[in-house]
């Protein structure tokens, strides 16, 4: 079984490692090295870095639209192509090259949360379940028939980081079992349902600016969904403050959303629908993440002051 693996971020690394143990990988496709981090040094993607550690052939085209790129792909003669968070849309001729086609490991329970940011959008929406789906790829975005899936619970303590790590490992394990059963004819692909389709739009940084007019539960979910990236924030006296962790409160109020209700040893803020939210951890510009108590020790704020612009 000759496999081409296509992936780019950390999420895809467990899948690459597990497939490498069980099958012959003839090539690893990843997005090209790009400047990253504070120093903007050019770094390999996590998948390319891992592939090189295993001495696997790596290919990093910036586009798949050129004929020479397709010819190189075709000449690897894959029996199966496995895609996990690659980041480039595969032209249809790539999907038709191998004997068993292309399969994709996706971090949601399709058809809910097709698209770029399924983990963040599931948490932001308050979903209590998510999971991994292995699907056959076709021309549409995450529209192919399902080969296998497995769900996990989303707890109130989960962030996009914890769900990312759980689904990253789950996707790898599911892929290995699915490849075996699919290529031996034990799996019959099932068309996705037409109802319940939801799209997980790419995260835009401006979304991370908290709107205190929303109910506390919505803000609580968004803080978890955008942790660690891009990280939610608000403003206090014109200074941008990152909001890292919050807790739902039972207090009611008659104040304008964003108003600070309590700032003794804890910070409690008025939200929409008369709801309230406690800020547990936050971060000043250029400083480390700190507890509300430590923040208050070094920052003078008063009851009645407001978060937001």
Strand content: 25-35%
CATH topology of the largest domain: Rossmann fold
Give average pLDDT, whole number.
96
User: What's the arrangement of strands in the largest beta sheet?
Assistant: 5-2-1-6-7-9-10
In the residues, how many domains can be counted?
2
Helix fraction?
A: 25-40%
Helical segment count: 8
Number of strands: 17
- CATH superfamily annotation of the largest domain: Formyl transferase, N-terminal domain
The major β-sheet equals:
7 strands, mixed
Structural class: alpha/beta
- Could you spell the SSE succession in H and E letters? EHEEEHEHEHEEHEEHEHEEEEEEH
- Taking the alpha carbons of the first and last residues, their distance comes to 58 Å
Shape: elongated
Low-confidence stretches: none
CATH class of the largest domain: Alpha Beta
CATH architecture of the largest domain: 3-Layer(aba) Sandwich
How would you summarize the topology of this molecule?
Elements: E1 2-7, H1 13-22, E2 24-29, E3 34-36, E4 41-43, H2 46-53, E5 58-59, H3 67-75, E6 80-84, H4 92-95, E7 102-106, E8 112-115, H5 118-124, E9 129-136, E10 146-153, H6 160-183, E11 198-200, H7 216-225, E12 232-236, E13 239-248, E14 260-263, E15 267-270, E16 276-283, E17 290-291, H8 292-298
Parallel strand pairs: 1-2, 1-6, 2-5, 6-7, 8-11
Antiparallel strand pairs: 3-4, 7-9, 9-10, 12-13, 13-16, 14-15, 15-16, 16-17
